[in-house]
Design a protein that fits this description.
alpha+beta; HIT family, subunit A; 9-stranded antiparallel beta sheet; binds zinc ion
């Protein structure tokens, strides 16, 4: 049983952990798998090769990764300039930026988890290139790369893909992490995220995977039951700073985490996965440490973590699972994907 408040140093907020609230630990139930394997190609999928999208454009017969401008963008270079008339207290401006979609593979049924390590490395390089290209645009202050996976987070098309929002502002979470990292560095001369890695290594119980250059852990201050951070061990403000060796190490650790997630309930594990990267507004972000965060919405195979009074109403998380217990569950799982094991 864990019952305490834990400080989230990157978000600078308390997380209430009341792990005695949970009735019983998960006891092995799994979701029924889809009756048949999904096909490689689906005629009415707007992400499959050679298919026509709503914009009228046709996808190329791509063989690896395919990047295109989102047909339903939330931000665009030519966003409308005729804005709402507002009183002085309100502000309004054009939604300038670039929104893109990155298809990981032409194969409709694959997931990031099932990509070969070399394909994941290739994807990391595409993310590097997109961050640099979009970040260089004068109107873009931050590049948010993220994947929403699974119906639990509202994604109905399983075709493996992520999205990029290159916006004319810095997202709130990044802004907070940047400020916390900067202030910590000014106060101590140290990199905040390095100290978090050091603390996780010293404890050891919450480390999910690790190699020479990368590490994955379920942080002490996790807000979601199966929240996992994946990071290079060396500090880089963005993914762009990673060397070939670090890309390979990062891909290996990332793949291990993804496989464990799927093995947990023997199902494609749903998540929201943002890359936390430094803004591209020309500021000094030497104290920022690039990492990926997984925010899985499920606590059990059929049980969502509902955001309610404390989270939506108050803005702080109440977690009814303990990070140590959940990390132990993930650590105990095999590194071989359940589908590979069956086949
Ligand atoms: Zn498809």
């Amino acid at each position: 049983m864990t019952w305490e408040e834990r400080w989230h140093p990157l978000r600078e907020e308390w997380v209430i952990v009341a792990a005695h609230r949970q009735n019983r630990p998960w006891s092995g139930e799994t979701l029924a798998l889809p009756a048949a394997d999904l096909p490689d190609y689906v005629e009415d999928c707007y992400l499959c090769p050679r298919n026509r999208r709503v914009s009228g454009q046709t996808n190329p017969d791509y063989e690896q990764i395919f990047v295109f401008d989102n047909d339903h963008p939330s931000v665009a270079p030519h966003a409308p300039e005729n804005l709402s008339a507002v009183p002085e207290i309100y502000q309004v401006r054009p939604a300038k930026g670039v929104a893109r979609v990155v298809c990981y593979s032409p194969r409709h049924h694959l997931t990031l988890t099932e990509l070969a390590p070399a394909e994941i490395e290739n994807l990391l390089r595409v993310w590097q290139a997109q961050y640099v290209e979009l970040g260089a645009r004068p109107e873009v202050e931050h590049v948010l790369i993220f994947e929403n996976k699974g119906e639990a987070v509202g994604v109905s098309n399983p075709h493996p893909h992520c999205q990029i929002y290159a916006n004319n502002f810095v997202f709130k979470t990044i802004e907070t992490e940047v400020r916390a990292s900067r202030e910590y560095h000014a106060r101590t001369g140290k990199i905040l995220f390095q100290e978090i890695i050091r603390a996780e290594q010293a404890d050891g119980r919450r480390i999910i995977a690790e190699n020479e250059t990368a590490i994955a852990f379920l942080p002490f201050f996790a807000r979601y039951a199966y929240e996992v951070f994946v990071a290079p061990k060396k500090s880089h403000p963005s993914i762009d700073g990673l060397s070939d060796e670090e890309i390979a190490g990062f891909a290996e650790v990332l793949k291990k985490v993804l496989v464990k997630f799927d093995n947990l309930w023997r199902m494609p594990f749903p998540y929201v996965m943002p890359l936390h990267q430094a803004p591209t507004d020309g500021g000094d972000y030497g104290a920022f440490h690039f990492h990926i965060e997984f925010h899985p919405p499920l606590r059990k195979p059929n049980l969502l973590k509902y955001l309610a009074g404390p989270e939506i109403g108050g803005g702080n998380f109440l977690s009814d699972t303990s990070a140590e217990e959940k990390a132990a569950e993930l650590r105990a799982l095999p590194d071989v994907h359940y589908k590979a094991e069956a086949g």
